[in-house]
């Protein structure tokens, strides 16, 4: 993970915005966050000692609405990373046309080292620190890497305790009985599946002839792999943070995932009910997985895994970015020159925030939707956003990432320009 991930994110926005002739006021507005809060969270550990954790929340830009974005619990979190992720959320929400700006949060912690009670105290401590910084009309957090529905539930409860009223719309990705939305857990993976299918239709890709490697079998990676396999795609490699497995014959994703949930190990297995048998597969590293000769590569873990160092070794024809920022800016051109097409993160993984938006709407109306309605509306939003991107791609002959960014920058730009630009004030236009 590069230290200057934020610098890289800004440079990409600036480059694409200049090429798309976005007004200077708009570019300036996106070059720094609106507000950042850094907090110390003291947590009473189970042995009676107190540990201190560093926490961040960033509201990046709210031209289109309250800021929105997840909270990450990971040892690699930094303020720079949170700002980069918040900038990407700003672009992402605008790509799908939902009425949000971008935000993000994080805590420097390895949650796997905490007991359940310590994790609850940390989660509640985070919300106590942020309770005046977030809110249903200002900034709405959600899950991200190593945070989940239960953590969102604790945070919502803490916020409601502080504010002495029910306020489910303060956070999304909650457990269903606490006001969560049906379909939110699968939404990032399902959204990626929808985007890949839209792409496959336009490029005449036959799922049955398409091999796939997935880096990261977390929530998003699991659901996209599961849905692709159901459609006929062959999932030939998967990995988790410890390493990966490869089999030319393909894996049954459900079996791998169930076995991993039960044993905490990613192994080549085929399961019928609770009985799993080992199947032939080869162990590979995460780096090797990225360089496999497959049709579709899905990085679904962390940022920066494809960079100047390994971009020239990528043999996949298409990369669908399910993680946030898995390709560094300086690898864009290398991949482009090699003819590797990239489905950009700001659209490919936008299913999560889109269903978060549906959750917020349901909370504010006090009217829960059926799973069918959530899935239908998700498909509508993402296929429309895909069509908007594709139109710019065809008209301007730019890569898909530039097309998606241009679509977002036009929307953010319009909101900022309607406040008045230098050209407007000086010309009286
Ligand atoms: N953390 C997810 C993302 O990066 C979801 C954010 C949200 O639902 O607000 O898109």
Give the SSE layout.
Elements: H1 5-19, H2 24-29, E1 35-44, E2 50-61, E3 67-74, H3 79-96, E4 101-108, H4 116-130, E5 139-143, H5 149-163, H6 187-202, E6 211-215, H7 219-231, E7 234-240, E8 243-246, H8 253-263, E9 269-272, E10 275-278, E11 282-284, H9 286-290, E12 296-299, E13 318-320, H10 329-337, E14 341-343, H11 345-348, H12 351-365, H13 371-396, H14 400-417, H15 422-427
Parallel strand pairs: 3-4, 3-5, 6-7, 6-12, 12-13, 13-14
Antiparallel strand pairs: 1-2, 2-4, 7-8, 8-11, 9-10
Helix pairs in contact: 1-3, 3-14, 4-5, 6-7, 6-12, 6-13, 12-13, 13-14
The chain binds glutamic acid (GLU).
Account of the 3D structure:
The protein is an alpha/beta fold. Among the domains are: 33-170, Leucine Dehydrogenase, chain A, domain 1 (Rossmann fold, 3-Layer(aba) Sandwich), CATH 3.40.50; 187-343, Rossmann fold (3-Layer(aba) Sandwich), CATH 3.40.50.720. It is 45% helix and 19% strand. The protein is built from 15 helices and 14 strands. The chain has helices at residues 5-19, 24-29, 79-96, 116-130, 149-163, 187-202, 219-231, 253-263, 286-290, 329-337, 345-348, 351-365, 371-396, 400-417, 422-427; strands at residues 35-44, 50-61, 67-74, 101-108, 139-143, 211-215, 234-240, 243-246, 269-272, 275-278, 282-284, 296-299, 318-320, 341-343. The chain has a 7-stranded mixed β-sheet. The chain has a 5-stranded mixed β-sheet with strand order 1-2-4-3-5. A two-stranded antiparallel sheet has the order 9-10. Helix 7 links the parallel strand 6 (211-215) and strand 7. Helix 1 packs parallel to helix 3, helix 6 (187-202) crosses helix 12 (351-365) and helix 13 packs across helix 14. The protein is globular and about 65 Å long. 51% of the residues are buried. Glutamic acid is lined by residues 68-70, 142, 144, 172-173, 324, 349, 352-353, 356. Glutamic acid binds at residues 68-70, 142, 144, 172-173, 324, 349, 352-353, 356.
